Amino acid sequence: MVRRSYSIFSIVLLFFLIACSQNNEQQAVDKNNQTEQQDSENSEGKKDSLSSDDNNSQNNAETLDMSNKTVEGLPDTYKALTSKPAGPHQELYKYTDEAKRLEFYQDKLPILPENPSNKQLDYFYQEILKLIQRDFNGPDKLIDNMRFQSLGSPDVEDSRYQFKENLNIEIILDASGSMDEDVSGQTKMEAAKETIQSFVQGLPEKAKVGIRVYGHKGSESEADKQKSCKSTELIYQISEIDQRKLSQTLKGVEPTGWTPITKAFQEAEKDLKDFNGDRNTNIVYLVSDGIATCEGDPIQAAKDLYSSEVTPIINVIGFQVDQKGQKQLENIADTTKGIYETVENPNQLKKEFDKVKEVAQSWEDWKDHSETKISVKDTENSLDIFGYITDEEGKIIDERMQAESIFSAYWMEGTMSKESYQYLEEKNHTYHDWIVKEVKELKSELNNIREKKHQEALKALEEKYKNNTKE
């Protein structure tokens, strides 16, 4: 009886244990499912959080919905390439901190989907180039530079390019609020002041200099616009250089307001009215970091100055300008047959003023013994051509490597697949190999005229490229 009771108890206990085991297993399964669900939710939440963070960090970026996007296509002629405006972020290539570069680009570029189409990648590459585009120049820029450097040659037909008894240089300097922006550890205005002071130190004793500023009064507010747009002042009268006085004068200029370029040109014509082009070689340099923001037509104002009895040479420097600003400043230079150059840092700004310094030194030599300098001019074609080609080749290398560094950073960070990276890498190499080929062809053509006399070479270049630009 006892044994039977024990058997019954054993059977009941067995059923109980089996039931508990099954219940525990079910609880374990439920718990695992719950854990997996929580993990999944946490993972999704994390993704959403990351996506939200990305969107916050990329608050200026575009999502890559191609329904409202256009892939413009890459340039297929050198002329088309040179018409592309310089990108605003070439200097970022110099940063050594890859994380900093990546963060910056992610804020500026559209967000790629996980598996982008070729069309989306083409658009992405197009937007990269807009940020880092180098300022490629066609042979017409070489011609403009050669013409400027040929100042003083007796073979020059345009009288404004012939040396006269006096040399006068007026610098029209942007003092608008944007000149307070940082560049290479100092403000643009500080860099411009240092460059001007260094420039005048190397000028001939008898050369005269004037400095006019604009946009240096009021503020960038709408309330101060009228006041600021009237502000332009000849802070250093056109005269022989007094280094101490000039330095003190520049110290008092602070960038504050709007950008009245038109008024600055109109007043510059008055500054030079006593320096008739018959007896004076007059050179005007406009230094600006952006488009005119006040009323008037700066292109027409520059043209009026160019056509006046002052007969000046007008050159323009764009100091870290955006695309709209570059377009307007280029038009000013083109209208007045002058040189336009974009500079991104103080060193490049200094190089542009060094060109004027060389011309001034040539003028001083001409005053002393003109024939010697003219004979040297005839040997400079090779250097001009070499310098032009070297600059273009350097731009190709820099642009190619900067583009490569961008999508390489995306891939290494895990925000771009290997396939997308390889597609962009091949596209980048193919495009820049084409530019290399174009420059080699230009080099071959230019080498055919390098042994000519300076003016003969200049004339040959003008006939080939100015009148019939290579497509």
UniProtKB/TrEMBL annotation:
It holds the Pfam family VWA_2. Residues 168-356 form the VWFA domain. It comes from the Bacteria. It comes from Pontibacillus yanchengensis. Residues 28-37 have a biased composition (Polar residues). Residues 28-69 are annotated as: Disordered. Residues 432-471 form a coiled coil. This is VWA domain-containing protein. Residues 1-21 form the signal peptide. Gene3D superfamilies: von Willebrand factor, type A domain. InterPro entries: VWF_A, vWFA_dom_sf. Keywords: Coiled coil, Signal.
